[in-house]
Amino acid sequence: MMDTILNLGLNDSAAEGLASRTGNPRFAFDSYRRLIQMFGEVVEGIDAHRFETALAELKRSGDVQQDSDSRGRRPAAARRDLP
Predict the structure, then answer these.
(1) In terms of Cα–Cα distance, which of 27, 8, 2, 5 is closest to 17?
(2) To which H or E segment does residue 22 belong?
(3) pTM above the 0.90 mark?
(4) Mean pLDDT, contiguous 10-residue spans, the chain (83 residues)
(5) Phi/psi at 10 (nearest 5 deg)?
(6) Separation of alpha carbons 69 and 59, rounded Å
(7) Nearest to 33 by CA among 81, 72, 68
(8) What's the rounded Cα separation, in Å, for the pair 42 and 32?
């Protein structure tokens, strides 16, 4: 089965522009997070648990409640330095 990677054109600058253009940074950065997570899993072969662990740690810190709740900042799972 072939996997599809959504939002492939997003990068740091495009995500900032999308947040500004839509007035919805949560949407923009969650889309970016999903791209990085899917690309990491499908193309780079990164274990999904690494992304899930980063999100769980962010949630435990009390900074966010949901995966998509980045409050206008790039979420931890979108970091290039995953544990």
Answers:
(1) 27
(2) helix 12-22
(3) no
(4) 82 92 91 89 92 83 67 50 53
(5) -75, 140
(6) 9
(7) 68
(8) 15
